[in-house]
Amino acid sequence: MQMRDVIIIGAGPSGLFAALHLPQHLRVLILEKSSQAAVKLLMSAKGRGNLTNTSITPRQDYQTSDSDFVEAAFECYKVQDFLDFLAKQKIEVQEEAGSRILLKSWKVLQFRDFLIDTLRERGINILYEQELLDIIPGSSSFQVKTDKENFQSKKILLASGTKSIPKIGSTDIALQLAKKFALWYTEFYPALVGFETEKELAILSGSSLNARGELYCNKKLLYQQFWPILFTHRWISGPVVFNASLYLKNLLKNPNNQISFKIQVGQEEITKRFLSYLWFKANKLSSYTFTTNITGVRGFDEAKISGGGIKTENLTPNFELKSIPGLYVIGECLDVNWKTGGYNLQRCWTSAVVCARSFW
């Protein structure tokens, strides 16, 4: 059995980016459960690639139990560092509404392929359709078991995804390992996902409005934002709703909680179609506000990410487990989450580089 210096579990954004920043003399192997790399990256902004956001303030902008850890990581690898990397590689981007940074080519597939091709040139291979079953620490190395074969490595980077969008191969293997190794963690829950509503919204299905959305639990305001809201037959989605979903967590499981969502629509957004939704006749309104109770959230099948994950309190500043030296945890499986718009991808880039630099 060939000994590797580093095995990376997961060929997603954090796994690929970490491999790109490791010392080139190391023998590196990437194991991926799916048949292709970085599927979630390909889905970003419907294929346009929302890679980061210039307005990120780490301490304020990430939900985590350890803001100091996140802020320290971003001090080591900032948004500007990632933009400088793109510029050095002559990858053109443009800033759009909400301080979002998107690929100018509108083709995230090209960016994904650039990462893979660069790694291939460095002799780093990706083995696909390798489902991780277990990681077994030894005295001087780790054994990695997949459903196909076993591997050995001096160090391991766990860069797996989470339970969101299981059709692309997502699993909860990170939390299975957290339980095995007695780590602190939060159970995964669907996040950046739509809400099921008590009100019937069929007449608005397919329409989108720029509006202020406010999420309440027992009349206490949890989150508010002005951004697009998309209406479907019996639920609402869009950036405002996705971001608000991060604040729900397990609140809906308590039957004593009343979860409601208030939508404030300005005059410029009140279309004829919206007026037809109202129970009274009106030709013109200066604004309109309505509230609906939230009866549920859409599941992991539709969630852009999973909230929760392995807590950063388990880690050194280099993302190495304090209790298991040589085993690192980066990317989406960490309990560090925030809103749509490039925030979560930047979390992946930052954790990948900070971790990889510790190998130099």
Give the helix/strand layout:
Blueprint: E1 3-9, H1 13-21, E2 28-31, H2 39-43, E3 50-53, H3 58-61, H4 67-76, H5 79-88, E4 93-96, E5 100-103, H6 108-121, E6 125-127, E7 132-137, E8 142-146, E9 150-158, H7 173-180, E10 185-191, E11 195-197, E12 208-217, E13 220-231, E14 235-237, H8 239-245, E15 259-266, H9 272-277, E16 287-297, E17 305-310, E18 327-329, H10 343-357
Parallel strand pairs: 1-2, 1-9, 2-6, 9-18
Antiparallel strand pairs: 3-5, 4-5, 7-8, 8-9, 10-17, 11-14, 11-16, 12-13, 12-15, 13-14, 15-16
Helix pairs in contact: 1-6, 1-10
Beta-strand residue fraction: 25-35%
**How many strand elements?**
18
Question: What value does the Rg take, in angstroms?
Answer: 22 Å
Count of DSSP-assigned helices: 10
SSE string, helices as H and strands as E = EHEHEHHHEEHEEEEHEEEEEHEHEEEH
CATH class of the largest domain equals: Alpha Beta
Flag low-confidence runs: none
Structural class: alpha+beta
Look at the structure and name the CATH superfamily of the largest domain: FAD/NAD(P)-binding domain
